[in-house]
Structure to design on (428 residues):
């Protein structure tokens, strides 16, 4: 059992403007789950001995952060200079992913990758692996050892990439099915069918992916959609039989409430209304969109159209694993379009919002009793500028906004996964 006493905020209802904040809270975790949570005064009134708590009066506790879109084999692609999507894939990304064919390389990389996520406050993620089955196996093994709630998938790609990265419609489907049987629903792990994007999958591969989605309706689907103007044109030439990019997925039954599409920047009105009516999730990846010069995702417009929205770092297109830095970019991308993304909306989407959009809100996203015990403790005193700036914040909302704009992993003092603490002493 662990008992934590600190300040705490979460969104127990599904309304981003209605958090529950306690300036002196207690959270009790047992067997990986939240057993109790509430104001310290209530615990004291019930006779609970507060002296048994790990007590951090100035720290702020939030539910663990969920990254709805990132690439496990792209840590070494971060900050690669000078290109946009298609050239960036060819020049930097495909060569980096080719290394993950080696199971030992993938095993070492998976451990380091998950340690990095935890160091940045990310307790849960939707991860693209490379096209090699070994890369997914390595990531699932590493996540299982840390009891992380992780959804991942081997990338499916059978054309338009170097040979060492290509599967075939048959081997891609066989490997995906084997990985689903082995890992989906094992502890906290889940599987996502992961066609990279329709440019690197033949029609037959997309059709086989649709068959798998029907055979295993409990798994997720993740891919990319409408990220870059040159990409959209290219997809049209690769798959001229479809009226638009979305139809290349729709035609195979790949758009539904468990389908997560990264980017969704340049969707047409028709694509927006079809995504909304089919329940597809658009994953906003502002850091990546700025870095790769892809464009400004029309967040407000997609939200108003009723599309379910999530947020992701999209590393290595994105430039930081830190979801705080991703929020700062989200704010700026929205500002440029006349929409002001507020701090409650920001921290809601990192926690409850991403849990809801990915249909995992029964397990994670808030501090309700029975949820899995994933949390992040932020210590503002670790960053002198932030410490000084928050001392004049007039409300918790103002304080959160400071973290959203100025914060990064230096603020993260502890990340807890399924009740187990990973503590960081402030040194790099
Ligand atoms: N589209 C297809 N593959 C990728 C990828 O690895 N990253 C991004 N940002 N977009 C993609
Ligand atoms: Zn991506």
């Amino acid at each position: 059992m662990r008992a934590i006493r600190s300040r705490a905020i979460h969104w127990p209802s599904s309304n981003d403007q209605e958090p529950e904040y306690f300036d002196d809270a207690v959270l009790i975790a047992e067997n990986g789950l939240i057993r109790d949570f509430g104001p310290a005064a209530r615990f004291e009134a019930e006779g609970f001995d507060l002296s048994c708590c790990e007590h951090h009066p100035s720290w702020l506790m939030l539910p663990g952060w969920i990254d709805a879109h990132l690439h496990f084999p792209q840590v070494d692609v971060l900050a690669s200079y000078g290109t946009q999507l298609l050239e960036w894939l060819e020049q930097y990304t495909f060569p980096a992913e080719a290394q993950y064919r080696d199971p030992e390389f993938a095993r070492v990389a998976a451990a380091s990758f998950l340690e990095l996520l935890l160091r940045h406050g990310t307790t849960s993620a939707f991860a693209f692996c490379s096209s090699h089955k070994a890369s997914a196996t390595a990531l699932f093994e590493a996540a299982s050892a840390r009891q992380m709630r992780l959804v991942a998938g081997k990338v499916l790609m059978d054309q338009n990439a170097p040979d060492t990265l290509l599967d075939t419609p048959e081997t891609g489907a066989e490997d995906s099915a084997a990985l689903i049987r082995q890992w989906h629903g094992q502890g906290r792990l889940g599987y996502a069918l992961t066609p990279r994007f329709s440019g690197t999958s033949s029609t037959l591969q997309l059709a086989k992916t649709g068959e798998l989605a029907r055979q295993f309706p409990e798994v997720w689907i993740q891919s990319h959609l409408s990220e870059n103007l040159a990409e959209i044109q290219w997809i049209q030439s690769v798959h001229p039989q479809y009226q638009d990019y979305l139809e290349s997925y729709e035609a195979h039954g790949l758009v539904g409430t468990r389908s997560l599409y990264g980017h969704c920047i340049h969707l047409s009105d028709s694509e927006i209304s079809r995504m909304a009516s089919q329940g597809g999730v658009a994953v906003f990846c502002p850091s990546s969109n700025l870095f790769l010069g892809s464009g400004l995702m029309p967040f407000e417009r997609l939200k108003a159209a009723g599309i379910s929205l999530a947020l992701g770092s999209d590393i290595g297109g994105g430039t930081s694993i830190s979801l705080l830095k991703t929020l700062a970019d989200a704010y700026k991308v929205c500002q440029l379009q006349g929409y002001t993304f507020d701090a409650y909306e920001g921290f809601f989407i990192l926690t409850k919002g991403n849990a809801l959009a990915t249909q995992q809100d029964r397990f994670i996203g808030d501090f309700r009793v029975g949820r899995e015990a994933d949390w992040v403790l932020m210590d503002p005193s670790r960053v002198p500028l932030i410490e000084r700036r928050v001392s004049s914040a007039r409300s918790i909302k103002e304080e959160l906004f400071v973290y959203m704009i100025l914060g990064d992993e230096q603020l993260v003092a502890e990340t807890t996964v399924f009740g187990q603490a990973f503590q960081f002493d402030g040194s790099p």
Remarks:
- Residues 386 and 406 are 7 Å apart (CA to CA).
